[in-house]
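Ticket #4471: structure output looks truncated?

Reporter: J.K.
Steps to reproduce: submitted the chain below (268 residues) through the standard prediction queue, then opened the result file.
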Amino acid sequence: MIVDLHTHTLHSDGTQEPAALLRLLDARGVSRFAITDHDALDAYSRLDLGALGSRVVTGVEINTTYRHNEVHILGYGFPLESPVLRPVLERNSLERELRVQTMTQRLTAAGYELSVEDVRSESHPGGPLGRPHVARALIRKGHVATIEDAFRTLLRRGGPGYVPSTYMHPHEAVRLVRESGGVAVLAHPGRLEDYDIIDELAGEGLQGLEVFYPAHDANQRAYFRAAAQRLGLVMTGGSDFHDPTYNAQGVGMEVDARDLEGFFTLLG
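Returned output as attached by the reporter:
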């Protein structure tokens, strides 16, 4: 089956309106999908959820940092008006603003003049700010040529514009997703520098691993499949789609339906 349980819109750091993303999903023949904007749920208000029915799964991506690792937790299947999750996402959005302020100050001090307003102009009004917005602003100012260049040079760990997101540990994100009635999944585990974090989070209530991900090679998929089986975690898959240019592979992941049974069973 073709699914995509990890996508983004311009309501966080993607570039597509929710309706435009839906058209791409339709064209690809995606049967189940989730919009997992960073710390934002606004995209769902732009869709006819009643018409989409069970095809759409509510989702969000929560960025955390732990032991020098960027650890992203995906939450699925929670009520959109969750009294547990909503206030946390709003707080995180404010923390993102402060983080971007520090990033622009450090970049400017290093000779790459940039303001928060430059970054905000690359985002949807009122939406949470993130590093992709900083990268686009750097391109517009002529400091780098591509988003990849920005992340590889200025925004990487140790680069002049790198500022870790220190406002939440993944353990807390897992707990909050579960308390909201959702399913907590570790996004793109192949990005971790320390795979022991997977075992630690499994002991803290993590329920799933994003095994099927475009950047995972065959060896990584096999490793994470085995880890999921060993730890009793369900498996998910998604493209992490942000933009047709940046994500040349497009939307949708072809996954054996049997590999997703556990996840859809947890959703109920």
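Triage note (M.O.): checked the attachment and the full token line is present. The beta strands are 2-7, 32-35, 56-66, 69-76, 183-186, 208-212, 234-237, 253-254.
Status: closed, working as intended.
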